[in-house]
Amino acid sequence: MGNEPVDRERDPETDIGGGSESESGTETETETETDGGVRAYTVRLELVDEPGELLRALAPIADNGGNLLSIHHERGNITPRGHIPVEVDLECPPDRFDDVVTGLREAGVNVIQAGEEHYGEEISVVLVGDLVENDLSDTLSRIESGANAAVLDLSLTAPEGTESVSSARVRLAIDSGRSNEALEAIRSLGSEKGLTVVEPLLGGESA
Amino acid sequence: MKLAVLGAGDVGRSVATLAGDYGHEVVALADSSSAAVDPDGIPVDDAVSRKEGGDGVGTADPEEVFETEYDVLVEATPTTLGDAEPGFGHVTRALEADRHVVLANKGPVAERYDELRALEAESAGSVRFEATVGGAIPVLSTIEDCTPQAVTAVRGVLNGTANFILTRMAAEGLDYEHVLAEAQDLGVAEADPTFDVDGTDAALKFVILANVLADGGFSLEDATVEGIEDVPGSALELAAEDGRTIRLIGEATRDGVRVGPRLVPENGALAVTGTRNIVQIETRHAGSLHSSGRGAGGPETATAVLSDVGRLPDLERDD
Questions:
Q1: CATH fold label, A27-115
Q2: What ipTM goes with this model?
Q3: I need a labelling partner for B173 at 20 to 30 A (CA). Which of A202, B39, B42, B122 fits?
Q4: Percentage helix, strand, coil for chain A under 3-state DSSP, each rounded to 5
Q5: Per-residue pLDDT at B275
Q6: pLDDT at residue B19 greater than cutoff 90
Q7: What is the dotted CATH code of the domain comprising B140-295?
Q8: Closest B-chain CA to A205
Q9: Which positions are annotated as binding NADP(+) (chain B) (predicted)?
Q10: pLDDT above 90 covers what percent of chain B?
């Protein structure tokens, strides 16, 4: 219903195209701890689409005491920068997690989300207009920066070809309580680019 | 009560026809050029058949309506924007004569709410306007029962034509123009559907709701309004992939009024289909209330008018 919480974590200090700079870094203990004090983390990386990249990215995790749980390789979902997003679930003692992230960065891996900040809300918007002619990737990166959001996926239809009116549904992860702010940013981007923005209805029991 | 009905369109004629069932008497029925007036009650069926046969409702001058003895003026002339005339003038004359007014015409309450309330304060008569919002659905009386202070927002679908078009587009995968033409053939959309599809009609209703919540201060120009003309079939298809659909949704709060196409859950309460309307009243202490039904139509809207008549206090007459 528009507000399903998504359990994604990211590092407020890393850049996701101008993502949220909200205060975080203070770790809140939300996950259950095991006997050894190991906790689960999710790290989102962006990899260049070249052979060996994934293996190279995973090495620093093990080297720094992390235990890989799962790897979700979103091959079909290339970022506006042409990279492939990879989501890695791992567990490690909380005091080793910073080393894991540092290790990844030192290896030249682009870490776009790590740490404790949760996206609390997920919303979809539908954009209508000359999306393709109007630089779709610019539109998406400006939604990410202007609306403090992360584009989770995009579905585009252009029934009359890319030179005519097309529609796109964009699913976004947004920090808790900031949906209205994000939608306002998308609205103003829409009016600047001459796009119709169909927003979700927030509030009440209908959203 | 003795009713004087101004406006002999679907709503005015239905009010006159059904008034007897509700225990009221019609002493006048007028269209823009003629009137039937009789202090002992007009023969409603005759007047209605004359009108439906293409003639005026009667032989009297519409001016005579105001000269006869009535308790309630039912204002059911077409809604006009801006100065809301001639409806506002009719309402003024009735209130200045210490008579009650029941509105089916949205203009005076959407465009000149504060002036109307000021006139009412000086009058022995009261103003009611349930029929201006959501046809047969008891929206304003529900808010009145909850007390407006306890209502934080009202959202919903209050234009059946736009809702019909969006429903058909989603179900048949057709584009806007195609479905609009179909709606016109079926008589669901008028020959000039502008105010329905550009959001104006829904906006007027949500402006009225905002006026009720905030005790005035809003008119149409304060509303942010977008229509459905730019929503292609493909947008509805994309919404459906995600379990959602698009509806022309209005929102009224004390802070403002917004009407536009919005994504709502496909099986959610607000995604009514066809010409059906729905309102969601968000309350401070009792969660959300939903009320759905027919938002337009002569007899439907007339029931709201006549329910309002039943809620009026007796006038203390000294004449």
A1: Alpha-Beta Plaits (3.30.70)
A2: 0.82
A3: A202
A4: 25, 35, 45
A5: 95
A6: yes
A7: 3.30.360.10
A8: B288
A9: 7-12
A10: 92
Question: Percent of chain B at pLDDT above 70?
Answer: 99
Neighbours of B237 (CB within 10 A): 18
Write out the two tokens for B297.
């139509």
The yes or no reply on domain A118-198 and CATH 3.40.50.720 is: no
The pair phi, psi for residue B92, each rounded to 5°, is -60, -45
pLDDT at B125: 97
* Angle, helix B113-121 to helix B87-96, in steps of 10 degrees: 10
**How far is B230 from A177, CA to CA, in rounded Å?**
30
A&B contacts, CB < 8 Å: 89
Query: Bridge partners of B96?
Result: none
B254 C-beta neighbours (distance < 10 Å), count? 15
Residues of chain B neighbouring A166 (CB-CB closer than 8 A): 234
With a CB cutoff of 8 Å and minimum separation 6, the contacts of B169 are B175, B176, B179, B231, B233, B236
Catalytic positions of B, written as ranges: 205
Distance in Å, alpha carbon of B71 to nearest chain A alpha carbon: 40
Helices (H), ranges, chain A: 53-63, 94-106, 136-146, 179-193
| pLDDT tens digits for range A133-186 | 888 889 998 988 887 788 888 999 887 776 778 999 998 888 767 788 889 999
Q: Helix, strand, or coil here: B30? A: strand
Burial pattern A150-172, b for ≥16 Cβ within 10 A else e, equals: bbbeebbbbeeeeeebbbbbbbb
CB-based contact B263 A159, cutoff 8 Å: no
Domain B2-135+299-311 listed as CATH 3.40.50.970: no
Mutate to test the interface with A, among B230, B238, B247 (most CBs of A within 10 A): B238
Whether A159 sits inside 8 A of B234 (CB atoms) is yes
Angle made by CA atoms A20, A26, A27, in degrees to the nearest 5: 110
- Which of the pair, B205 or A60, is modelled with greater confidence? B205
Task: Kindly provide the residue ranges of all beta strands, DSSP E only, lying in chain B, ordered along the sequence.
Answer: 2-6, 25-30, 35-37, 72-75, 100-103, 127-128, 151-157, 223-225, 244-253, 256-265, 276-283, 288-294
The answer to whether the CB atoms of A167 and B280 lie below 8 A apart is no
A-chain CB neighbours of B282 within 8 Å are 203-204
- The per-type count for chain A, helices as H runs and strands as E runs, is 4, 9
Residues in B closer than 8 angstroms to A125, CB to CB, are 263
Whole-angstrom distance, CA of residue B190 vs CA of residue B319: 45
Least reliable range by pLDDT among A6-15, B168-177, B249-258, B292-301: A6-15
Min Cα distance A148 → chain B (Å) is 21
- Tens-digit pLDDT profile for residues A46-100: 888 788 888 888 888 888 888 888 888 776 777 766 778 888 888 887 778 888 8
